[in-house]
Write a structure and sequence with these properties.
heterodimer; A: 75 residues; SH3 type barrels; five-stranded antiparallel beta sheet; B: 364 residues; Rossmann fold; five-stranded parallel beta sheet; four-stranded parallel beta sheet
Chain lengths: 75, 364
């Protein structure tokens, strides 16, 4: 029930945004993330953005996974 | 970066699984608190790829499952009042209450409508000014701020016929209750990712500090879960217990301050009844005094029928992590997703539903 899906913000009007989720466009509320900008990925839960996703952290995590995989192959 | 498929790459899973196998020496039991995590674990067969040393148990992190029959009975009683529209998330429709379900009362003529968001419920209220629109407010800290926002929007848009039946629940207090009961011994906790997106990682610190249980906040893709298990194993093998965040792209230690501010503005903690666990102090949210006229329980006069639990259903034991769905005599026989007896079979993220749909060797 706490399902939240990443969505890309395409446009913002007041406290609402148009987002793209897997090719589908829909309107969501930005009441909980007023700092969100066009181009941000947000986590959408029941029609509200509950957080802005951090791209740098995501890339860092994936880099760590790649390092672990490389190291394990060498063990 | 789409934030989804990247975290499902099987070649990276292999590295994480290999590291877990190499590092895990001690026999441990980890609990995934959240039903969303249970679904990921089952859908991707993660239990099968973990070493024998790691036992996974599912926790009570499914709001639909832990809603007490007495609270559902209130929703049923409200739905039978004249000129009332009940709005709710789809998961709640089939959940059996003591004597009926929202689906059954809808079939009998009650106006019960499934909405995706509280914003939809507000539109229904605006379009039906002569009716009272009651939103069944179910959910954890993830959902509570969206309900709070809807109350403030109703005020701003002068919507006078919008009410809330608040059955919200808070996660940290119930984990304390579970640990204090001593029924289930844990060596690590997979903390809920989207609850933590709101509350941050600090509210879990008491678990690491007072109970010496390692805690890691996880995301919901298979690589997230594997990373989280690997971090828990590392803490166990190093003799540590601290709170870490594996889901760093979605969770900050301080949480979402704006969302927390909204919860604080509209709600206050109260005791709450959890199915299978009982009353837990300060584990619920009720509307603050200034918003109490919007509380359905106060605004409407209802007398729900006495609460009743179906015989044979062990959802309560499953939610406490002391039994598994296959221990239940009804599982897969009298109780299936089409004809559920207990809520853990109804909700898409209930343990029984996950076992039934993806269980394979577990008897599903």
């Amino acid at each position: 029930m706490c399902l939240a899906i990443p969505a890309l913000i395409k446009s913002i009007e007041d406290k609402e945004a148009e987002v793209e989720i897997g090719g589908i466009t829909r309107r969501i509320s930005l009441w909980l993330t007023p700092e969100a900008k066009v181009g941000d990925y947000v986590l959408v839960h029941t029609g509200y953005a509950i957080n802005i996703l951090n791209q740098e952290e995501a890339e860092e995590t994936l880099r760590l996974f790649a390092e672990i995989t490389k190291a394990e192959e060498e063990v | 970066m789409k934030f989804i498929t990247e975290f499902r790459r099987s070649e990276l899973a292999g590295g994480l699984i290999s590291q877990i196998h190499r590092r895990s020496k001690t026999s441990v039991r980890f609990m995934e608190f959240c039903g969303g995590h249970t679904v990921t674990i089952f859908r991707y067969g993660l239990r099968q790829v973990l070493p024998q040393t790691i036992e996974m148990v599912s926790g009570p992190g499914c709001p639909v499952c832990v809603t007490a029959n007495a609270d559902l009975d209130k929703a049923i009683a409200l739905s039978r009042l004249p000129d009332v529209i009940i709005t709710t998330f789809g998961d709640m429709l089939k959940v059996p209450a003591s004597h009926s379900s929202l689906q059954k009362v809808k079939a009998d003529g009650a106006d019960v409508r499934v909405v995706y968001s509280t914003t939809d419920a507000l539109v229904i209220a605006e379009r039906n000014p002569t009716k009272s629109v009651i939103f069944l407010g179910i959910g954890f800290e993830t959902t509570a701020p969206t309900i709070a926002a809807s109350i403030l929007q109703a005020k701003a848009r002068r919507i006078k016929n919008y009410y809330i039946l608040s059955v919200h629940k808070l996660c940290p207090p119930v984990i304390r209750a579970l640990l204090d009961s001593g029924e289930v011994k844990l060596h690590g906790l997979i903390c809920p990712g989207h609850v933590s997106a709101i509350i941050g990682s600090h509210p879990w610190e008491f678990i690491a500090r007072d109970y010496n249980i390692p805690c890691v906040v996880s995301g919901f893709e298979p690589l997230d879960i594997l990373q989280c298990v690997d971090m828990l194993v590392a803490q166990v093998e190093n003799g540590e217990s601290k709170v870490e965040i594996a889901y760093r792209r979605g969770v900050r230690p301080e949480g979402n301050r704006e969302a927390l501010k909204l919860i604080e503005q509209v709600f206050e903690p109260c005791p709450a009844e959890w199915r299978g666990i009982g009353e837990v102090p300060d584990s619920g949210l009720r509307l603050r005094k200034e918003y109490q006229t919007l509380a359905a329980e106060f605004a409407f006069d209802i007398e729900p029928e006495p609460a009743y639990e179906p015989g044979g259903c062990i959802c309560g034991d499953i939610l406490r992590g002391v039994k598994t769905p296959t221990d239940c005599k009804l599982f897969g026989k009298a109780c299936t997703p089409e004809y559920p007896v207990g809520p853990c079979m109804v909700s898409s993220e209930g343990s029984c539903s996950a076992y039934y749909l993806y269980g394979g060797d577990f008897g599903g």
